[in-house]
Write a structure and sequence with these properties.
The protein has about 425 residues and is α/β, with parallel strands linked by helices. The protein has 16 helices and 17 strands. The longest helix is centred in the last third of the chain and has 17 residues. The chain starts with a helix and ends in a 6-residue tail after the last helix. Keywords: Amino-acid biosynthesis, Aminotransferase, Cytoplasm, Lysine biosynthesis, Pyridoxal phosphate, Transferase. Belongs to the class-III pyridoxal-phosphate-dependent aminotransferase family. LysJ subfamily.
Length: about 425
């Protein structure tokens, strides 16, 4: 570790809240599927900002759009119409499922979930929700009510009010049928559970959720914060299931790395929210809008959904070919991939980073999650798989005390 790197680490650790665990590395730049630390060491990035850098780090179109917009206008509230905001809304509605043509703009996935909650209440006049066990919906007090994992809720006690939330086992149709009633405002679910272990829903489960919500007068809200924008091999994961929800929460990859969020919905849902019923200072700011226009156009022009389909299938095929008794299952959709092990994944994630120069994530204590940019090459995929096979063969998790300490850091997952 260089003295300069120690300086930056020291400063961040000194002044940071310490809520998020820190790796002992300082990242300074990125391009495509590769990031570099301050020593100049390169890493193949299969974290991608928790699934943000779908189109790669520093995509040239996004960089240019940000530069151009920064010289023109940086901020403008949504009460004052803006040319770039109108352009972005047109681009976004042009790729969302038919009928989802009204948009509330915000800054993150958590904010999008907060908006979805309020729009569902005003649209239905109801206050009960159905959410999924192992689901993750964000860490604000409102979104935490939909998040299953107790460790996120328990520190805040009764301030997290989930008395109006019924949790059902993801994929269990009978539990879903029992939970959805005439009191249900909305069912909220991820088409692929990310933090819950990279678990794609079955078509039958999603389709039954759509049928039941329509039957009971409730909304179906799909959390596409991580699955959206080509990650799963479609522009949105909903397209895999042949359903159109009443709303989708969006964020992460929508602007190529710039903070952004949105709740897209039907006109009927939007029109039932009273004027002034929700808002935000920075939502729809021109800089994020410019980045979003460039990002969505790049996704379409470069066929990134098809790339994710093809590369995801190739990646999973290579992972499944690894001969290791430590692997229980390889699963995923597109380039959202999880490898469930028969022992804790943290030591292997630690070894991938420090020994092999590959960045990955946890998804439950047993799962190694791969979320590379869609721009990752097949050669880079081969490098990642070879590195993973080496650490599976070489790491003794019981002897890796340092890796055990790193587990707490690796459990810090997407908050937005």
């Amino acid at each position: 570790m260089t003295s300069t790197q120690s300086k930056w680490l020291e400063a961040e650790l000194k002044y940071d809240s310490r809520v998020v665990g820190k790796h002992e590395v300082v990242m300074t730049r990125g391009q495509g599927s590769v990031v570099w630390d301050e020593t100049g060491r390169s890493y193949i990035d299969c974290v991608a900002g928790y699934g943000v850098a779908n189109i790669g780090h520093c995509h040239p179109d996004v960089v240019k759009a940000i530069r151009d917009q920064a010289e023109r206008l940086l901020v403008m509230p949504q009460s004052l119409p803006n040319d770039k905001r109108a352009e972005f809304l047109s681009e976004l509605v042009g790729v969302t499922p038919a009928g989802l043509d009204r948009v509330f703009l915000c800054n993150s996935g958590t904010e999008a979930m907060e908006a979805a909650k309020k729009f569902a209440i005003t649209a239905t006049g109801r206050k009960r929700f159905v959410s999924m066990k192992r689901g993750f919906s964000g860490r604000s007090l409102g979104a935490l009510a939909f998040t299953w994992e107790p460790k996120y809720r328990e520190p805040f006690g009764e301030a997290v009010d989930n008395r109006n939330v019924d949790f059902v086992t993801y994929g269990n149709i009978e539990e879903l049928r029992a939970a959805i009633t005439s009191d249900t405002a909305a069912v909220i679910l991820e088409p692929v559970q990310g933090e819950g272990g990279v678990r794609p829903a079955s078509p039958e489960f999603i389709q039954e959720a759509r049928r039941l919500t329509q039957e009971k007068g409730a909304l179906l809200i799909l959390d596409e914060i991580q699955t959206g924008f080509c990650r799963t091999g479609k522009m949105f994961a909903a397209e895999h299931y042949g359903v159109v929800p009443d709303g989708m929460t969006l964020a992460k990859a929508m602007a190529g790395g710039v903070p952004i969020g949105a709740f897209v919905m039907t006109a009927d849902v939007a029109d039932r929210m009273p004027a002034g019923g929700h808002g935000g200072t920075f939502g729809g700011n021109p800089l994020a809008m410019a980045a979003g226009v460039a990002a969505i156009r790049a996704m379409k022009r470069e066929g990134m959904a098809e790339q994710a389909r093809e590369k995801g299938a190739y990646f999973m095929e290579k992972l499944r070919a690894i001969q290791s008794p430590k692997i229980r299952e390889v699963r995923g959709l597109g380039l959202m991939i999880g490898v469930e092990l028969k022992e804790k994944s943290a030591p292997y994630i630690h070894a991938l980073e420090h020994e092999e120069g590959v960045l990955t994530l946890q998804a439950t204590p047993l799962v190694v999650r791969f979320l590379p940019p869609v721009t990752i090459s097949r050669e880079q995929i081969d490098t990642v798989v070879a590195a993973f096979e080496r650490v599976l063969n070489g790491v003794n998790p019981r002897a890796e005390r340092q890796a055990e300490l790193a587990a707490a850091q690796q459990e810090q997952t997407q908050t937005e």
